[in-house]
Design goal:
Layout lengths: L8 E4 L4 E4 L6 H4 L2 H6 L2 E9 L2 E5 L12 E2 L10 E2 L2 E3 L5 E13 L8 H18 L7 E4 L25 E3 L10 E2 L7 E8 L16 H16 L2 H15 L5 H9 L6 H5 L1 E3 L18 E2 L13 E2 L2 E2 L9 E6 L9 H10 L3 E6 L6 H8 L4 E5 L18 E6 L7 H9 L2 E6 L8 H6 L9 H7 L14 H5 L3 H16 L2 H15 L5 H7 L1 H13 L6 H24 L5 H15 L9 H9 L23 H6 L14
Parallel strand pairs: 4-7, 8-9, 8-12, 9-10, 10-11, 13-14, 17-18, 17-19, 19-20, 20-21
Antiparallel strand pairs: 1-8, 2-3, 3-4, 3-12, 5-6, 13-18, 15-16
Length: 650
Amino acid sequence: MWRGKTVAQQVEIPEATWTCTDDHLSEEEKNSKSNRRTRQCVVENLCVDRRGAFIRGHGGIHMENMPKVNLLSSDEDSDVFWQPRVERIWSKTIKAHYVNETVFVHGLYAPYHFSHWLYNGMMPLYSTMKRFAGTKDSWTFRPARYSGDDWTRQGDWEMDHFFQTGKELVLSQYELSTSFQSLPPSDAPICFQRAVVGLGSQCALVYCERNIPAEINQSFRDEIAKYYWDTPSVWQKHLEFIQQTIRGSGTEAVEKSKSKNSNTPLKCLEMARYYNFEGTGSSLTQEQGEKANRFGQKFPDIADPSEAYHGSQVGSDNTKRNLVVGIIQREGSRRLINDQDLINSLVEAGFRVKWMSFDHGCGLPETAYLLRDVNVLISPHGNAIGASIFMPSKDAVPTMISVDTTRHWESWFKFTATALGQRFISTQCGPSFYADEAARNLCPLVENKAEWPQHLKRHSLVLGIPASMVPTPEERMKMSQSQLKHMFSRNNNYVSSHPDAQTLQAEETELIYGADLPQTLIQKYGEDVWSVIADYWKAIPRYVDVPRVTKFVQTLQVDFDAEVQENLKNSVATELEKSFGQYFKYVREGRSCGFDACEELLDRNVVKDTSAFGQYSTDNIAKWGQLRPESQPLRSSITELKNWKIEDYV
């Protein structure tokens, strides 16, 4: 018996047949880039062995195979087009493990990175399973991955909430990161009644061809919440299991992870700090260690006792509740320097504050648990902010405040936020621009000198050398890794043996630390120094403009109270209006996305036919992805797209 699941025996495996989402298209339409990236196929009778997947072929000398299908939902350069091999099997039966279920064939992009795994992998897979009748007994198979990924880096995210009896088949020992993954049986192939191939190039980012329906995004969050918290014993058993694995009685994969560092999935629960809370979370569960970590019971929010929380999500008709503000701290790069000042200011203003850190480990259910009652999330722009999908949307439209600097800011999570129906705004406090003199005094220039050498080494760049020793971009592009390493060593030796070069290196380094863009260095070193500068400023610790952010959160409280009142009036609203009407209102008012570059992503994710909102999904599988007629009035009501700025309000 293989893994307690199946026994190999003689099984009749018919020749494979398949249907694809583009069967109705002309050959020219089938060959379009968009269609090739989004094609998904359903295959009857697919088998998997240690070499990969195969189907039983039919036809003459040249046996027919299904078309190649893109396994990823990522950028075009990372697409992986795949098809099974075709085998001619003369006997009527073969020895195989047989599973009368559906296997979903897909790939992952950067599975070790939480937000890439989530938004480029798990959510497209979840959407595909909803479209093609996946169940908790379905299986998955990952036959390939983006070639640029490091095979030794894997994610170990839990999947119990979506799969009960199924497993995930992988082909490499490196990919056995949890008890959910398994190599195919060694004694015989494992065959499935049905396979769904491909993820359909669906995600919130502009490089995907399609959006995931907004209702599916909500369902993803709600299904995790329902699994873990609607039945208290499930959450308690989960915590006990994780504690057992930490003590060494769990899976081999967890034990390997434990030997590398002290990080555990429960660490984020142990480290979380609660300020101004009288009660928190679902009244159905006993919060793990929360009471011991509550600080500053100065102004308990007595209008919002724990009884006001229903089930797994925040929900109450009481309009006197103060918002819950979550703060994510990073201990390495992008650290918030004055996070305690921010906490104190928000608490003084009467808000409940939850301080979190994911740097020492946090599982998927633990992440969802911490975010389950957070209305406003403040975090440096980065991986952890992707946890916003678990913020509740029953009452207030969730808002993210990304803490950036004037030297580096990003748009990645603006895309995910707009497709989720969440508000997103960046706040910057120097070093090259300040809203006013008060902000300048609050946010002094940060010189992260200790981290600078590692950025130089990563990009094989040495400052202080003569311009004649700097390779042209064309010359550098042609260099191998060994040649780059040799050049780095040669240039370092030159500087160490020439005092004038050492002086020049010190002067050029000071320009990097300065508040202004070092144009002279960019002219001298070109793209080489630009890449290093971008990495340096992306990772640098930063200050929060505490008074301005606190005042801004106070405006969000006013919005929240107005939303609750408005929702009480909308008894005749459509389901789409009930779910996202308030969000569309903010888009119309120019108060949904900022501080810049929001027009394109709002156009794609909200307004145009690519909108995530108002798509048919599980309500009409045959029309999946097409826009419902009732979405047109909401989308057409948006006539101008504006950027939202904190400075405009406070």
